[in-house]
Design goal:
Helix content is 39%, strand content 17%. It has 239 residues and is of the alpha/beta class. The strands form 3 sheets. The chain has a 5-stranded parallel β-sheet with strand order 5-4-6-7-8, with helices on both faces. Strands 1-2 form a two-stranded parallel sheet.
Protein backbone atom coordinates (compact mmCIF):
# COMPACT_ATOMS: atom_id res chain seq x y z
CA UNK A 1 0.00 0.00 0.00
CA UNK A 2 1.59 3.25 -1.12
CA UNK A 3 4.15 3.70 -3.86
CA UNK A 4 7.77 2.52 -3.60
CA UNK A 5 10.76 1.73 -5.75
CA UNK A 6 10.68 -1.30 -8.02
CA UNK A 7 13.60 -2.77 -6.03
CA UNK A 8 11.59 -2.81 -2.81
CA UNK A 9 8.55 -4.16 -4.63
CA UNK A 10 10.65 -6.99 -6.08
CA UNK A 11 12.04 -7.85 -2.65
CA UNK A 12 8.54 -8.01 -1.20
CA UNK A 13 7.35 -10.24 -4.03
CA UNK A 14 10.26 -12.67 -3.55
CA UNK A 15 9.68 -12.87 0.20
CA UNK A 16 5.94 -13.33 -0.26
CA UNK A 17 6.50 -16.25 -2.59
CA UNK A 18 8.85 -17.92 -0.14
CA UNK A 19 6.38 -17.39 2.72
CA UNK A 20 3.36 -18.54 0.75
CA UNK A 21 1.64 -15.16 0.99
CA UNK A 22 -0.88 -13.70 -1.44
CA UNK A 23 -0.01 -10.05 -2.08
CA UNK A 24 -2.76 -7.69 -3.21
CA UNK A 25 -1.47 -4.36 -4.56
CA UNK A 26 -4.83 -3.08 -5.78
CA UNK A 27 -5.63 -0.70 -2.94
CA UNK A 28 -3.69 2.38 -4.14
CA UNK A 29 -5.39 2.03 -7.53
CA UNK A 30 -8.83 1.71 -5.98
CA UNK A 31 -8.12 4.73 -3.80
CA UNK A 32 -7.15 6.73 -6.89
CA UNK A 33 -10.60 6.15 -8.37
CA UNK A 34 -12.45 6.66 -5.08
CA UNK A 35 -13.59 3.05 -4.57
CA UNK A 36 -11.35 1.92 -1.73
CA UNK A 37 -14.04 1.71 0.96
CA UNK A 38 -16.24 -0.74 -0.93
CA UNK A 39 -13.17 -2.74 -1.85
CA UNK A 40 -12.02 -2.94 1.77
CA UNK A 41 -15.44 -4.16 2.86
CA UNK A 42 -15.30 -7.10 0.47
CA UNK A 43 -11.60 -8.07 0.80
CA UNK A 44 -10.12 -10.21 3.58
CA UNK A 45 -6.55 -9.59 4.75
CA UNK A 46 -4.27 -10.96 7.45
CA UNK A 47 -1.99 -7.90 7.48
CA UNK A 48 -1.00 -4.70 5.69
CA UNK A 49 2.40 -3.61 4.34
CA UNK A 50 2.29 0.16 4.00
CA UNK A 51 4.59 2.97 2.93
CA UNK A 52 3.28 5.88 5.01
CA UNK A 53 5.03 8.83 3.41
CA UNK A 54 3.97 12.47 3.28
CA UNK A 55 3.42 11.89 -0.43
CA UNK A 56 0.34 9.80 0.53
CA UNK A 57 -1.35 11.93 3.24
CA UNK A 58 -4.57 9.93 2.89
CA UNK A 59 -2.92 6.68 3.96
CA UNK A 60 -2.80 7.01 7.80
CA UNK A 61 -6.55 7.63 7.99
CA UNK A 62 -7.19 4.68 5.71
CA UNK A 63 -4.99 2.37 7.80
CA UNK A 64 -6.96 3.18 10.95
CA UNK A 65 -9.89 1.30 9.41
CA UNK A 66 -7.97 -1.94 9.79
CA UNK A 67 -8.01 -4.08 12.93
CA UNK A 68 -5.29 -6.37 11.54
CA UNK A 69 -1.49 -5.89 11.92
CA UNK A 70 0.10 -3.05 9.93
CA UNK A 71 3.83 -2.76 9.15
CA UNK A 72 5.07 0.64 7.98
CA UNK A 73 8.07 0.99 5.66
CA UNK A 74 8.62 4.73 6.10
CA UNK A 75 9.16 7.10 9.03
CA UNK A 76 7.01 10.16 8.26
CA UNK A 77 4.30 9.31 10.82
CA UNK A 78 6.04 8.06 13.98
CA UNK A 79 2.99 8.96 16.05
CA UNK A 80 1.13 6.02 14.49
CA UNK A 81 3.33 3.56 16.46
CA UNK A 82 3.40 0.82 13.85
CA UNK A 83 6.22 -1.72 13.67
CA UNK A 84 8.59 -0.44 11.00
CA UNK A 85 11.17 -1.70 8.56
CA UNK A 86 13.31 1.24 7.44
CA UNK A 87 16.11 1.78 4.99
CA UNK A 88 19.62 2.52 6.29
CA UNK A 89 20.16 5.77 4.42
CA UNK A 90 23.42 6.63 6.21
CA UNK A 91 24.92 3.31 5.11
CA UNK A 92 23.84 3.99 1.52
CA UNK A 93 25.56 7.37 1.51
CA UNK A 94 28.70 5.89 3.03
CA UNK A 95 28.76 3.08 0.46
CA UNK A 96 28.43 5.56 -2.40
CA UNK A 97 31.27 7.70 -1.06
CA UNK A 98 33.54 4.71 -0.53
CA UNK A 99 32.79 3.48 -4.06
CA UNK A 100 33.92 6.77 -5.58
CA UNK A 101 36.97 7.04 -3.32
CA UNK A 102 38.04 3.49 -4.18
CA UNK A 103 38.12 4.53 -7.83
CA UNK A 104 40.44 7.42 -7.15
CA UNK A 105 37.99 10.32 -7.03
CA UNK A 106 38.97 12.87 -4.38
CA UNK A 107 36.82 15.81 -5.52
CA UNK A 108 33.46 14.65 -4.25
CA UNK A 109 30.05 16.27 -4.66
CA UNK A 110 26.69 15.44 -3.08
CA UNK A 111 23.66 16.69 -5.00
CA UNK A 112 20.05 16.69 -3.82
CA UNK A 113 16.82 18.70 -3.49
CA UNK A 114 15.56 20.27 -0.28
CA UNK A 115 12.20 18.56 -0.74
CA UNK A 116 13.90 15.17 -0.30
CA UNK A 117 14.31 16.00 3.41
CA UNK A 118 15.06 13.15 5.85
CA UNK A 119 16.24 10.40 3.51
CA UNK A 120 18.53 12.74 1.58
CA UNK A 121 19.92 14.29 4.75
CA UNK A 122 20.86 10.86 6.12
CA UNK A 123 22.45 9.83 2.82
CA UNK A 124 24.34 13.12 2.76
CA UNK A 125 25.62 12.40 6.27
CA UNK A 126 26.92 8.97 5.28
CA UNK A 127 28.56 10.38 2.16
CA UNK A 128 30.28 13.08 4.22
CA UNK A 129 31.48 10.54 6.81
CA UNK A 130 33.09 8.40 4.09
CA UNK A 131 34.79 11.43 2.54
CA UNK A 132 36.09 12.80 5.83
CA UNK A 133 37.40 9.38 6.87
CA UNK A 134 39.55 9.47 3.71
CA UNK A 135 40.71 13.04 4.34
CA UNK A 136 38.43 14.55 1.69
CA UNK A 137 35.78 17.25 2.05
CA UNK A 138 32.75 16.91 -0.20
CA UNK A 139 31.02 19.86 -1.83
CA UNK A 140 27.27 19.86 -1.30
CA UNK A 141 24.92 21.26 -3.96
CA UNK A 142 21.31 21.42 -2.83
CA UNK A 143 18.55 22.70 -5.08
CA UNK A 144 15.96 24.64 -3.06
CA UNK A 145 12.56 24.52 -4.72
CA UNK A 146 11.55 27.76 -2.96
CA UNK A 147 14.37 29.94 -4.29
CA UNK A 148 16.14 27.97 -7.02
CA UNK A 149 15.33 27.81 -10.73
CA UNK A 150 11.98 26.18 -11.45
CA UNK A 151 11.48 23.38 -13.95
CA UNK A 152 13.80 20.50 -14.72
CA UNK A 153 15.50 22.15 -17.70
CA UNK A 154 16.35 25.30 -15.74
CA UNK A 155 17.52 23.22 -12.78
CA UNK A 156 19.82 21.09 -14.95
CA UNK A 157 21.26 24.24 -16.55
CA UNK A 158 21.93 25.67 -13.08
CA UNK A 159 23.59 22.44 -11.96
CA UNK A 160 25.63 22.31 -15.17
CA UNK A 161 27.07 25.76 -14.46
CA UNK A 162 28.03 24.64 -10.94
CA UNK A 163 29.80 21.49 -12.17
CA UNK A 164 31.68 23.41 -14.84
CA UNK A 165 33.36 25.56 -12.17
CA UNK A 166 34.73 22.61 -10.17
CA UNK A 167 38.11 20.90 -10.27
CA UNK A 168 38.07 17.71 -12.31
CA UNK A 169 37.68 14.80 -12.14
CA UNK A 170 34.54 14.81 -9.99
CA UNK A 171 32.80 12.00 -8.16
CA UNK A 172 29.14 12.95 -7.70
CA UNK A 173 26.46 11.25 -5.65
CA UNK A 174 22.80 12.01 -6.35
CA UNK A 175 20.56 11.42 -3.34
CA UNK A 176 18.46 9.02 -5.43
CA UNK A 177 18.52 7.59 -8.94
CA UNK A 178 16.23 10.22 -10.43
CA UNK A 179 18.33 13.06 -9.02
CA UNK A 180 21.53 11.36 -10.18
CA UNK A 181 20.10 11.39 -13.72
CA UNK A 182 19.97 15.19 -13.47
CA UNK A 183 23.73 15.10 -12.84
CA UNK A 184 24.23 13.05 -16.02
CA UNK A 185 22.23 15.59 -18.01
CA UNK A 186 24.08 18.51 -16.41
CA UNK A 187 27.47 16.95 -17.18
CA UNK A 188 26.49 16.48 -20.83
CA UNK A 189 25.28 20.08 -21.03
CA UNK A 190 28.62 21.27 -19.61
CA UNK A 191 30.55 19.14 -22.12
CA UNK A 192 32.00 16.93 -19.37
CA UNK A 193 32.67 13.26 -20.12
CA UNK A 194 31.04 10.57 -17.97
CA UNK A 195 32.63 8.76 -16.20
CA UNK A 196 36.19 9.94 -16.88
CA UNK A 197 35.59 13.56 -15.87
CA UNK A 198 32.39 13.18 -13.87
CA UNK A 199 31.57 9.84 -12.25
CA UNK A 200 27.96 9.63 -11.04
CA UNK A 201 26.31 7.30 -8.55
CA UNK A 202 22.70 7.22 -7.39
CA UNK A 203 20.78 5.36 -4.71
CA UNK A 204 17.93 2.81 -4.84
CA UNK A 205 19.28 0.74 -7.78
CA UNK A 206 15.99 1.04 -9.63
CA UNK A 207 16.54 -0.60 -13.04
CA UNK A 208 13.70 1.39 -14.58
CA UNK A 209 15.81 4.48 -13.92
CA UNK A 210 19.43 3.35 -13.89
CA UNK A 211 19.25 1.19 -17.03
CA UNK A 212 17.36 3.83 -19.01
CA UNK A 213 19.51 6.79 -17.97
CA UNK A 214 21.45 8.94 -20.43
CA UNK A 215 24.47 6.80 -19.47
CA UNK A 216 23.84 3.53 -17.55
CA UNK A 217 23.84 4.67 -13.94
CA UNK A 218 25.82 3.13 -11.08
CA UNK A 219 23.57 2.97 -8.04
CA UNK A 220 23.79 1.90 -4.41
CA UNK A 221 21.24 -0.72 -3.40
CA UNK A 222 19.82 -0.31 0.09
CA UNK A 223 19.19 -3.09 2.54
CA UNK A 224 16.37 -2.63 4.98
CA UNK A 225 16.97 -2.62 8.71
CA UNK A 226 14.46 -3.63 11.37
CA UNK A 227 13.14 -0.97 13.69
CA UNK A 228 10.63 -1.01 16.55
CA UNK A 229 9.37 -4.38 17.80
CA UNK A 230 9.92 -7.44 15.60
CA UNK A 231 6.93 -8.91 13.81
CA UNK A 232 6.24 -12.54 13.11
CA UNK A 233 6.30 -14.18 9.73
CA UNK A 234 2.72 -15.15 8.95
CA UNK A 235 2.68 -18.05 6.44
CA UNK A 236 0.02 -18.14 3.77
CA UNK A 237 -1.47 -14.84 4.84
CA UNK A 238 -3.04 -12.24 2.57
CA UNK A 239 -1.25 -8.85 2.56
Amino acid sequence: MGFMSSQRQTGMVHYAREAGWILDSSLPLYHAVGEELDYLDTAQYDGVLALCSRASPWLPDLLRRFTIPVVDMWADYPEEHYPRVLLDHVAAGRAAGEHLLARGFRNLVFYSHTIEQKAAAARQQGFRLAAEAAGARPTEIIWDHKVGPTGRAARVKWLSASLAKMELPLGVMGSNDQIACEVLEAAELAGLAVPSQVAVIGVDNDPLVSELALVPLTSAAIRSRRRSRPFARRPRGRY
